[in-house]
Design a protein that fits this description.
Distance between the termini: 40 Å
Number of strands: 13
Shape: globular
Number of domains: 2
Order of helices and strands: HHHHHHEEEEEEEEEEEEE
CATH class of the largest domain: Mainly Beta
Number of helices: 6
Strand order of the largest sheet: 4-7-2-1-9-12
Structural class: alpha+beta
Length: 288
Amino acid sequence: MSATAFSAALRGAISTSGLGLDRIQARLQERGISISVTALSYWQSGKRQPERQSSISAVRVLEEILDVPAGALLGLLPPPRPRGASSRRRLDEPAESGGVIAAFGFEEDASPALVGLHDLCDVDAEGRCVMVTAKAVLRAGTSGHDRWVLRYRRAEPHSRPPTLRASRNCTVGRTSFDSCEGLLLAELLFGHGLDNGETQLVEYSLSFEDTDSAAHQHFREFSSPVPEYLVEARFAGNTRPERSWQFSHPETGQPETRPLRVDNGNTVHAVAVDFGPGRFGIGWSRPG
């Protein structure tokens, strides 16, 4: 893709700001925006353009960081490029569209509702999230639910898929990973059908072997309101970040952040109640 008015304006704004791409990425991350340095480089060179809603939101924040008038960059974005009707396209669709469910060949209501989720992130001495242990509580809306489709998006696109392990009340079925989007889809199979209104507690873990690209944040995207989401980050040994914060990006409304305090167990946590659709998570700086 050749240079566009958007890429030229972004490149000029970055040059004028005097900020490096690493610093811009860090400032975006402080506001709960996950954009890799590679993506920023592609945007300013014209190799790629922001298209997903999360990328459009990032451009709005970029305008503030680079101190350019609101709309100065957004107004230059060309129309989204057309895509085919392949399974890759379905994976690119936002979670709220139901397209990711269709990618596995069944309807949205074939998966039970998420009513509670607890994520525990293990963070190494370099501040990188190396594993997430998750407990999910699911409720069947009709009889017969026998699986749940996990949708997990990595903070860093163009990364390798995490290693998924089922540890309680489920086994791993079909999986698919879109490396460009950093999106993992996986079936967690219960081994039996649920009755209408019955709940199922499942536990699983996600390990990240490519720690060079492991992010200093963790978040979940919810396509519908979830009654409770608890997320923790546990820091290795005596290391702790200089700063940590929670962030929320509701589908409608303004993004919000607030600082978090590291507790005596060397962890930080945040809780979202009746949150969604949108993105909620926590971030932390590199250990001092």
